[in-house]
Amino acid sequence: SRDLCIDQAVVFIEDAMQYRSISHRMDAGSMRLYRCYYSNACQRILNFTIFCILALAFIETPCSLTKTADVRYRSLHWEPPCGLTEGVEGLCLLVFMADVSVKGFLVGRAQFQRNVWLLAYIVVLAVSLVDWTVSLCLLCQERLRIRRLLRPFFLLQNSSMMKKTLKCIRWSLPEMASVGLLLVVHLCLFTIFGTLLFTVGEEDEHEKKERLTYFQNLLDAFTSLLVLLTTANNPDVMIPVYSENRAYAIFFIVFTLIGSLFLMNLLTAIIYNQFRGYLMKSLQTSLFRRRLGTRAAYEVLWLPRAVLTGGFPSHRVGVMPQDFLQVLEKAQLSSSQKQAIMEKVRSLDGVLLSADEFQKIFSEVDRGVVREHPPRPCYQSPLLQSAQFLFGHHYFDYLGNCITLANLVSICVFLVLDEDVAPSDRDNFVLGVLNCVFIMYYLLELLLKAFALGPWGYLSYPENLFDGLVTLALLVLEILTLAVYGFPYRGWYPEMRGLLSLWDMMRLVNILIVFRFLRIIPNMKLMAVVARTILGLVQNLRAFGGILVVVYYVFAILGINLFQGVIVAPGNDSLAHDNGSAPCGSFEQLEYWANNFDDFAVSARGPLPHRDILEEPKEEELMHRLRNHPHVRLCR
Amino acid sequence: SRDLCIDQAVVFIEDAMQYRSISHRMDAGSMRLYRCYYSNACQRILNFTIFCILALAFIETPCSLTKTADVRYRSLHWEPPCGLTEGVEGLCLLVFMADVSVKGFLVGRAQFQRNVWLLAYIVVLAVSLVDWTVSLCLLCQERLRIRRLLRPFFLLQNSSMMKKTLKCIRWSLPEMASVGLLLVVHLCLFTIFGTLLFTVGEEDEHEKKERLTYFQNLLDAFTSLLVLLTTANNPDVMIPVYSENRAYAIFFIVFTLIGSLFLMNLLTAIIYNQFRGYLMKSLQTSLFRRRLGTRAAYEVLWLPRAVLTGGFPSHRVGVMPQDFLQVLEKAQLSSSQKQAIMEKVRSLDGVLLSADEFQKIFSEVDRGVVREHPPRPCYQSPLLQSAQFLFGHHYFDYLGNCITLANLVSICVFLVLDEDVAPSDRDNFVLGVLNCVFIMYYLLELLLKAFALGPWGYLSYPENLFDGLVTLALLVLEILTLAVYGFPYRGWYPEMRGLLSLWDMMRLVNILIVFRFLRIIPNMKLMAVVARTILGLVQNLRAFGGILVVVYYVFAILGINLFQGVIVAPGNDSLAHDNGSAPCGSFEQLEYWANNFDDFAVSARGPLPHRDILEEPKEEELMHRLRNHPHVRLCR
């Protein structure tokens, strides 16, 4: 029974660290399954499956693996053989079926029936399976695949943060809708105004027709003004009537002021406020889950024990550090967190831990582990010591930055100088020599820094890692270039040997050098702050990114179904003089041939709650929740 | 001496109510001048002078009073005779000279020398005068007029709120500049990347040339990406390379993500934060000025006096209400404020006012005076009473709104029906009759409401005022139409009689009806809130509006000086088939002929500080300031 309690504490602590709910089965067998399900391997398999099923859209008919999307130059789509993508999809669906059954089993029947997401998961899976069977029966010849539209659901249901964001969007819909309504009223009124103002009287027809380009009828006027809200057609829509009478500009100024400046910004402000409040609240829930988990672990671990207070024996309640250590040993936490907690517990040497102290240990860990760099190597010789001081100093970094900047400037100078020379006539001698010299310096810098900080010390700085990797890539490229094309000489013209031409090699080297210039970011204070802010934003906005991916995905699939093949490549004769024949602003004149509906954008996924300045949950709330938990009582 | 103190108190209270500084001369003569200077009449003259000198730009050569700005259709500019605008300008400058001398005299020599704005005022006036003299000497033939660029200064210096805003902009410049620098670095790096990525190799020339439309050289690439930051050329800039290889889209996606989404929004957030903080601080200063003014008034008014506390005579210090009333009687405050304060003071019947009570009376007034509507008339007859109940009920308003909506719909229906009919062939019979009926209803509604609420009660609601005015205008128009064109009959075709054709009359009526539809705004809760928010914004953003006017003005004048006459009307032959010959996207093809540099936008002025949730200034601070004031002591 004591072992079961220890195991339960392990599960509770893992739940707490991952901000998971503790409402699930807690018997020995279920716990083994639970820990296995939430183990890194299983979760990675699940994530990979979700990635696979989403990525399938790139390979399925119509396949997106052509070099260009331009209907004029595009090669024929590769048709995957029937059964290939369906086979992969079948495997994915199998994994999801296993996922939903394990999840359903673990949360128990009562929780399962209340969980809308799990029920929806089953429905989506069932529909997908039926659709998949139909697909196979029709030998992949069916036009409509409903299951493609449903796929983003698997991404949604697997992320608690994305579910929260979705709920938040649903909650702010009424407010957004009311400002949306205002916008519509604003648009409608101005549409009627505009149509009445800019109608053609009984005067000269030719001149007046022009005035009506954007205000022919109510629908045209509405569309024009709707686009004007985004300022996309800003001067154009005004030009015909403005060139008639300059007072007409007032109409457009008033419209833009009210619509774009006030109402659109009001919408932004409302969305911002709603989201901030709601996200704060949902992060609070995450924190509450963590507190609940740790408290539950405490509840199953505590033991009464006699202690000496002021020479008299008395009873005190608490967790024994050795129990705690045993739990920590078993729990799957990140190694740095585990290390920090265990050191803390060991430093208590045998004193019972109260509930408060127990909680405190976990909140301490959350403050973030400061990463320490390995110590610098100690050299004996004073010469080596002064060299170490010199090359380990941050002025040496600045020198490196200056040299990188000089390299960048040299590339720019050659870009400007060779602007009018055809690429095949360019003499790469000087730039080749310069790049050679610079790359030698970069290598030297790398070695000297590694000498000064020690190899591990060098690698412990992320900026050095970046720097080193790019430098090594540069070195490899340069050696390859020299090996294939020999040392630079006057008239080192671009020519083709092997995989890449000298021209492309040089471009690649130059691009890498520009890329290497990014190492200055941590050296400039402001840039570092902004870069860190942006990285933090990306972290915190991952859930939003996920929602965006879902929306993009659904619209891309819808677009393919609706508009595939609508854009047809122009005939040969119109291709020859398309600029002359097509009216300005038309699809043909703008050559938007690559803008069709045969592919779509998808990007990475991954949601994790972050922690902000949140209120601490109250003790009573925690205890109230725990009193209703059936498994915590078992251990008492 | 007591009279002088009363007068000083009057001036202090006026200063307080207008948030003015109290550091100025306080002897009897100066005070008379001061009150005269800040009287409504003098300030109106000054404001009108500023308006005049700014508005001169419309009339001066090149005169903006043509109907259209289109170089193809524009009539010749009217040339004002030499001396006309210069005469007006001379008068304005005379007023400003009087203004600066009065201001300088009133603040005293010490203050004057420390006041940068006043010194700059004198310099600007001197330069303007010299320039004006040169103009007159050259008989208005000079090309460059520096004084036109300096004119917005008169607007700036006359408004304390605009000066504060300007200071705020100056303070936030460093932060903005640093993010601006980041943007520049971002742009530069991507420019070099882009130029290296999208260069032409040694392949087929024709196909590749196209790829280089936007990335020919460093400068072109920089411009393209700079415009891409605003998303103005969003798909176009990407199309040539994207149609070559779809992977190139990643370059543009990353650029837009970092540039437009992160850095631009970061800039907005920084500006927002800086301004909020600084404006709050400067509004605090305004509040402090008010407190200081009222406290100073208290200090010159208080008298020691024996009062009975608990049956024993004791001394208490305070202001006698009759003195206060005397001061209020003399002070120039808005009548509603004055009324409220005087009632408050009278209700104290003779008790001495302490400093706190004195301050409190003024802050009470600031809370806003609730406007009361006059009582409804009382009718004797029960029939009239029930009619009054019926037509005074807000359901009657709703009925009116519904009828207005119906009218709007009928106009829309006719707009759609007559879409394809030439205006001269349209039969206005049905619409004419409908409008007639509706206008009769509007008149009836007006009369019934006036009957129910009484004439003054009716006018006390701003929405009724708006409604009534528009209805009256509609009535006048309708009567005019009927008088000139007779009653509507089948085939009531538009024709020309008198000033306006029937067609134009009908349009005007329709536009007014759409305009009248705005009366629904106060009836819809959300709309009313948004409308009030927008009105409040307009009030509070007046200072920013003023700064914008200044910037627009200066750039408009600069534009005229630099680019006047650069855009030349096309010859007759190119006018005939301009769409065919001009390349797409060019000035000629887009017919931007009206976009030249011969006129500019100017708008209203007027700054007043508003009051937000501000901290109250501390008692000690006030007293510390007053202790250093030379004139408050005189009365003690």
Automatic annotation (TrEMBL), chains A, B:
Listed transmembrane segments: 41-59, 116-140, 179-200, 249-272, 398-417, 429-453, 465-485, 505-522, 543-563
Record keyword Transmembrane present: yes
Catalytic activity: Na(+)(in) = Na(+)(out); Ca(2+)(in) = Ca(2+)(out)
Record-level GO cellular component terms: late endosome membrane; lysosomal membrane; melanosome membrane; monoatomic ion channel complex
Ion transport domain segment(s): 49-275, 393-582
Keywords from the named record: Calcium, Calcium channel, Calcium transport, Endosome, Glycoprotein, Ion channel, Ion transport, Lysosome, Membrane, Repeat, Transmembrane, Transmembrane helix, Transport, Voltage-gated channel
GO biological process: endocytosis involved in viral entry into host cell; intracellular pH reduction; negative regulation of developmental pigmentation
InterPro entries cross-referenced by the UniProt entry: Ion_trans_dom (IPR005821), TPC2 (IPR028798), Volt_channel_dom_sf (IPR027359)
Bilayer topology annotation: Multi-pass membrane protein
Pfam families given in the database record: Ion_trans
Gene Ontology molecular-function annotations: intracellularly phosphatidylinositol-3,5-bisphosphate-gated monatomic cation channel activity; ligand-gated sodium channel activity; NAADP-sensitive calcium-release channel activity; voltage-gated channel activity
Keyword Transferase: no
Compartment(s) where it occurs, according to its Swiss-Prot or TrEMBL record: Late endosome membrane; Lysosome membrane; Melanosome membrane
Protein's job: (Microbial infection) During Ebola virus (EBOV) infection, controls the movement of endosomes containing virus particles and is required by EBOV to escape from the endosomal network into the cell cytoplasm.
Subunit architecture: Homodimer. Interacts with LRRK2. Interacts with HAX1. Interacts with MTOR; the interaction is required for TPCN2 ATP sensitivity. Found in a complex with LSM12, TPCN1 and TPCN2. Interacts with LSM12.
Family to which the UniProt record says this protein belongs: Belongs to the calcium channel alpha-1 subunit (TC 1.A.1.11) family. Two pore calcium channel subfamily.
Protein name stated in the entry: Two pore channel protein 2
Lineage per the UniProt record: Eukaryota, Metazoa, Chordata, Craniata, Vertebrata
